[in-house]
Amino acid sequence: MAAIPEKYLDLLQQQKKAFAHIATVQPDGSPQVTPVWFDYVDGKIRVNTAKGRVKARNMKQGAPVALSIMDPDNAYRYVQVRGKVTRETEDGARAHIDTLSHKYLGKDYPWAKPEDVRILFEIEPAAAQGMG
């Protein structure tokens, strides 16, 4: 597991409302990019989505991903992280989306639908570098 350079760790902290753009690989090999909420726990980046969405279909365990996380206070400062999905689970995923929503919106996830099946993904960084 690669360490995130210390000078960019603030971008991953709970108090910084930085969005990540996550790149996944489609079955045909083409890239797919989506902005996502995330958190950083025990050296892993965690993202959440609903079952059936494109990124959920692309992010199976072992799948390669890349994230670009831009500083919301300085668009010329960012960190790029490349890694693999190391865990995919529905356990705790509904609570996790509420935790992320509190980080970004200050309240429980407002777009929850009873029929949605939430999935929590953990990504282990393999390489990281930044600018700014």
Structure explained in plain terms:
This protein is mainly beta and 132 residues long. It has a single domain, classed as Electron Transport, Fmn-binding Protein, Chain A (Pnp Oxidase, Chain A, Roll). 14% of the residues lie in helices and 45% in strands. A 7-stranded antiparallel β-sheet has the order 2-1-5-6-7-4-3. The chain is globular, with a radius of gyration of 14 Å.
Write the layout of secondary structure elements.
Blueprint: E1 20-25, E2 31-36, E3 39-41, E4 44-50, H1 54-58, E5 64-71, E6 74-89, H2 93-105, E7 118-131
Produce a short descriptive summary:
With 132 residues, this protein is mostly beta strands. It is built from 2 helices and 7 strands, in the order ββββαββαβ.
CATH class annotation: Mainly Beta
Category from helices, strands and their pairing: mainly beta
Mean pLDDT rating: 96
Major beta-sheet overview = 7 strands, antiparallel
Please indicate the percent range of residues in DSSP E strands (runs of 2 or more).
over 45%
Keywords:
132 residues; Pnp Oxidase, Chain A; mainly beta
